[in-house]
Design goal:
The complex is a heterodimer of chains A (98) and B (216). Chain A is mainly alpha-helical. Chain A has a domain at 1-25 and 57-98. Chain A contains three helices and no strands. Chain A has helices at residues 3-20, 30-37, 65-92. In chain A, helix 1 runs antiparallel to helix 3. Chain B has a single domain, classed as Arp2/3 complex 21 kDa subunit ARPC3, CATH 1.10.1760. A two-stranded antiparallel sheet of chain B has the order 1-2. By secondary structure, chain B is mostly helical. In chain B, strand 1 and strand 2 form a beta hairpin. The radius of gyration of chain B is 17 Å and the shape is globular. Classes of the chains: A mainly alpha (98), B mainly alpha (216). The interface between A and B is large, with 64 and 68 residues.
């Protein structure tokens, strides 16, 4: 893939993450719906054994909820791009990865 | 269907971790052998796209939403092993950074989505592609396999919930499979749209299309 193609691919993902994530439905997903309907949702809300830095994709320190989600999406997408790319580089033992 | 902590019994959590670690180890080994150099950046792009798309919940029915899972999309594009690794990376990232899916339940989430959904979904894709031929089977295979991958992964999730004693199987299985049969329609539409786009611009990058000529 050319550098331009890689950039286009990444930009498509970033656009989805930044511009579409604030528009996402806040309705419960399939598993949450079933857990709620059949009375076991509470068991999943007892709190985890650890606390992640950005729970529920709400980037800390940003008052606007939709913007907090958009920023989480943007930064998360950039980081996971690096992780996926980097891991593939490691697996192929390529040194020319940038 | 990211399972939170608190749902699954310890024996299910432990078995899921064991199967997941073994399977992902195998996938890593296979990927080093199979992945082509030109596919390396695509693993980054696919991870980014699936992470981004998983944030976009679309409404399905009566106060329920769903989002892309992306297992079959990743597997058809990158091959099943690299596809499973991409899904695993996304799941680990979502769990550790965004508290999306439990940490103890991560093994089960990897098992349901990266192993059963992605590797299993790819097998269905290959079978359908063989039945309908390379060209037509590519689209039919991607559509049906992506839909089925969501339903099957949800069914395994239901099985784990039932064994953990949360709800009887005859109730939770049809409930999970039913709602995910609807979510799976969105999955099939996005998967086919994305693959058709890539097929138009860079068909040589699609593992599920070039596989035959390479003999893998």
């Amino acid at each position: 893939m050319s550098r331009k193609e890689i950039l286009i691919g990444l930009i498509i993902a970033l656009i989805v993450a930044f511009f579409l994530s604030p528009l996402a439905s806040s309705w419960p997903d399939g598993l949450e719906r079933v857990a709620h309907d059949y009375g076991f949702i509470a068991q999943g809300e007892q709190g985890s054994i650890f606390k992640s830095p950005i729970p529920d994709y709400a980037f800390p320190g940003i008052g606007n909820e939709k913007m907090a989600t958009a920023i989480s999406g943007l930064l998360g997408t950039l980081v996971i791009f690096g992780i996926g790319y980097g891991l593939a580089c490691l697996l192929k033992k390529r040194r020319d990865c940038k | 269907m990211h399972i939170p902590d608190g749902f699954l019994a310890t024996n299910i959590l432990a078995s899921a971790w064991a199967i997941s670690i073994g399977s992902i180890g195998f996938c890593l080994k296979k990927t080093t052998q199979i992945l082509k150099d030109k596919m390396v950046p695509l693993m980054g792009i696919m991870s980014a796209f699936i992470f981004a798309a998983q944030m976009i919940n679309f409404p399905v029915v009566g106060g329920t939403s769903g989002h892309l899972f992306g297992g079959v999309l990743a597997a058809v594009l990158l091959g099943p092993y690299a596809g499973a690794i991409v899904i695993t990376c996304v799941l680990i990232f979502q769990c550790l950074i965004f508290q999306d899916g439990g940490l103890l339940a991560l093994g089960a989430n990897i098992l349901n989505m990266a192993i059963i959904g992605t590797l299993g979904g790819y097998v269905i894709f290959v079978v359908l592609q063989k039945i309908f031929g390379s060209k037509k089977g590519f689209i039919i295979g991607a559509a049906v396999a992506s839909w089925l991958s969501v339903v099957v992964a949800a069914s395994f999730c239901a099985l784990e919930l039932a064994i953990s004693g949360l709800s009887p199987l005859h109730i939770v299985l049809p409930a999970m499979a039913g709602i995910h049969a609807l979510i799976g329609i969105g999955e099939a539409i996005i998967t086919v749209a994305a693959l058709s786009f890539i097929q138009k611009v860079r068909p040589d990058l699609i593992y599920g299309l070039v596989r035959k000529t390479d003999g893998i």
